[in-house]
Amino acid sequence: MTDEQRIIDDYAREYEGLLAGSPDERARGGREMAGYLQDAAEAGELAETLRRLGSPRAAVTAMSKQGSAPTAPLGARFDAALRDHAPLLVVTVVLMLQQVLRQLDEGGPLMIFFPPPPYQPGGGLLHAILMTLALTWSIVALGVIEGRTGTTPGKRRAGLRVVDDTGVRAGTSRCVLRRLSLLGGPLVWLDWAGVLGDGRRRFSDRLTRTKVITLTEER
Q1: Residue 218 near residue 65, CB atoms below 8 Å
Q2: Cis? peptide before 70, omega within 30° of 0
Q3: Alpha-carbon torsion 183, 90, 81, 216, what sign?
Q4: Which of 2, 37, 76, 167 falls 20 to 30 Å from 131 in CA-CA distance?
């Protein structure tokens, strides 16, 4: 392998890793960049092309239209969230029925929250098990899926994608972090209050420097 080919491969590999999208989309983008650099090398212009592109991150930012894309509409985000958090909806219904039965048997106030708090006095083992499973899906599983593909089942159906402020792939860590507000139970709506502002971003989006945009095909 020549030095030029090694430079091309390393650049294309790093460029691919920063792209937002599914693994197949990123692989296609990496191949396109490698082909572009290969053509430049054959024309004796590799050094000039790399100077013009800058770092792989700078190239992704410059070539991607997603960094400057407006944030997704509120309705589409709610639609995606309800689909993604269907397990939490089911858990809410089950816990509501549990509380109704307990109230009929023991009396006391009936308190229903969505999403339910992770811990609730008197919730018992059922509450603990169901909430652990539901939150593992909503925070960890969806965060990993979102970090790897830039979207989730609900977001994909609504045509949405998560990127960082520059249009680069947000990555798994940030995608998990932006979901931790679910640990606050119904307090998560304070996080969602941020979408009412001009930027239509949750407070956790701002903290993790991510945003949800309408999915577009990159050419």
Answers
A1: yes
A2: no
A3: positive
A4: 76
